[in-house]
């Protein structure tokens, strides 16, 4: 279904544009061989995280991992956590699959699908230990701001999927988007800012590819870390699809 018209999409207009699926031969090879091993198909019912990762461990969802270099580094530095990466871009999926094989990491799984639908349909409420959203597409033109991922209905969905005490960590190099993130996250009744305004970059987050590009262009970088409240008002949870 066209998600632009789907009333169950929390007011979400697609945050990405579908490009033709260009992949390098080695990305395609990795995609074909390794997606059946580390990939999960999108499904319209909830995922059993324990069965998926073959262990009980805190699970972090990453939205829009790009080429996956940051995902790999964080997963290597935090072997005790599970990482579920969601990305729509096929060459990025191929690139992360290649890295998983080269570095023999076992705590990453990949879903190639719109993260809004993955969260809505596949993730049970109050289950995630964390969410990473690093350098989401900034959609700089004002008429495109509606495509930005961090908007109130989506943040409400995101917060509902976090376990109490779980965190959302966002970063961006667009000042105006950073301000929007701070405003929207601060307004969620389910979330509490862990810092006074923006956060210092935590040690576990390495510099990402898009961040490097932004810094080269003279942009600043803003991190935000919010946690899900222990005792939210149940009326504010989105429990049904
Ligand atoms: C600007 S890139 C940042 C990539 C990476 N996080 C980094 O910092 O280098 C944003 C990525 O988010 C992906 N993306 C955008 N909207 C998405 C969605 N709704 N679901 C999954 N991925 C999405 C895009 O395909 C793109 O690869």
UniProtKB/TrEMBL annotation:
CDD domains hit by this protein: AdoMet_MTases (cd02440)
Superkingdom of source: Bacteria
Binding sites annotated in the UniProt record for substrate: 141, 173, 208-211
UniProt xrefs under InterPro entries: SAM-dependent_MTases_sf (IPR029063), tRNA_(Gua-N-7)_MeTrfase_Trmb (IPR003358), tRNA_methyltr_TrmB_bact (IPR055361)
Catalytic activity: guanosine(46) in tRNA + S-adenosyl-L-methionine = N(7)-methylguanosine(46) in tRNA + S-adenosyl-L-homocysteine
Entry keyword set: Methyltransferase, S-adenosyl-L-methionine, Transferase, tRNA processing
UniProt KW Transferase keyword: yes
Binding of S-adenosyl-L-methionine, residues: 62, 87, 114, 137
Pathway annotation from the record: tRNA modification; N(7)-methylguanine-tRNA biosynthesis
Gene3D superfamilies reported for this sequence: Vaccinia Virus protein VP39 (3.40.50.150)
Entry EC no(s): 2.1.1.33
Family: Belongs to the class I-like SAM-binding methyltransferase superfamily. TrmB family.
Role according to the record: Catalyzes the formation of N(7)-methylguanine at position 46 (m7G46) in tRNA.
Protein name as annotated: tRNA (guanine-N(7)-)-methyltransferase
């Amino acid at each position: 279904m066209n998600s632009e018209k789907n009333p169950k999409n929390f007011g979400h207009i697609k945050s990405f544009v579908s490009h033709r699926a260009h992949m390098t031969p080695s990305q395609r090879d990795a995609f074909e061989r390794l997606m059946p091993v580390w990939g999960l198909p999108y499904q319209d019912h909830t995922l059993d995280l324990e069965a998926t990762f073959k262990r009980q461990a805190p699970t972090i969802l990453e939205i829009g991992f790009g080429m996956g270099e940051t995902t790999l580094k964080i997963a290597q530095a935090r072997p005790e956590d599970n990482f579920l990466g969601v990305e729509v871009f096929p060459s990025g999926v191929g690139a992360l699959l290649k890295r998983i094989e080269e570095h023999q990491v076992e705590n990453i799984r990949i879903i190639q699908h719109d993260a809004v639908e993955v969260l809505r349909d596949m993730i049970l409420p109050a289950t995630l230990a964390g969410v990473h959203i690093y350098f989401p597409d900034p959609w700089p033109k004002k008429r495109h701001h509606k495509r930005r991922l961090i908007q109130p209905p989506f943040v409400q969905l995101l917060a509902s999927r976090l376990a109490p005490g779980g965190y959302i960590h966002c970063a961006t190099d667009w000042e105006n988007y950073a301000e929007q993130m701070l405003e929207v996250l601060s307004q969620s009744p389910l979330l509490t800012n862990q810092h006074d305004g923006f956060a210092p970059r935590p040690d576990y987050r390495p510099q990402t590819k898009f961040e490097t590009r932004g810094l080269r262009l003279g942009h600043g970088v803003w991190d935000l870390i919010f946690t899900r409240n222990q005792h939210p008002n149940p009326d504010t949870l989105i429990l049904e699809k």
